[in-house]
Design goal:
Mean pLDDT: 81
Structural class: mainly alpha
Low-confidence stretches: none
Strand order of the largest sheet: 1-2
Number of domains: 2
Strand content: 5-15%
Largest sheet: 2 strands, antiparallel
Number of helices: 3
Helix content: 40-55%
Distance between the termini: 72 Å
Number of strands: 2
């Protein structure tokens, strides 16, 4: 069967409807699979946050045992505050980074409880 150039050129490629259907199907597949692949990030951030809180609370407790009060600033866990007697730190090697927002840190209340600032 012999085809002319005009017939061959006209039948090549996809129609607009075929392209739209393919895009719609790929969109539905992505929409359905995205939560499956994105879900491990949240539990990892929660575990990092809990580990940071436990680490800071332990350092704050050790600071309280040595100095007699909880630290007023986080830098007191790294460097000796002026006028503190009994300081035996550093109690932390570095300040932990908040996994939810690295620009924010953590706060310690007067009872030594730590929470992430959000």
């Amino acid at each position: 069967m012999v085809h002319s150039k005009r017939e061959i050129g006209r039948n090549c490629g996809f129609t607009l409807w075929e392209v739209l259907v393919a895009l719609a199907l790929s969109g539905f597949l992505l929409y359905g699979l995205l939560p499956h692949f994105a879900s491990p990030v949240l539990p990892i951030k929660q575990r990092i946050d809990q580990g940071n809180i436990v680490q800071i609370e332990g350092a704050a407790q050790a600071y309280r045992v040595d100095v007699g009060a909880y630290p007023r600033l986080f830098t007191d866990l790294l460097d000796a505050p002026v006028g503190a007697t009994g300081w035996q730190g550093p109690y932390l090697r570095e300040l932990p980074v908040n996994p939810w927002n690295p620009a924010l840190g953590y706060s310690v209340d007067t009872l030594g409880r730590v929470k992430a600032l959000q």
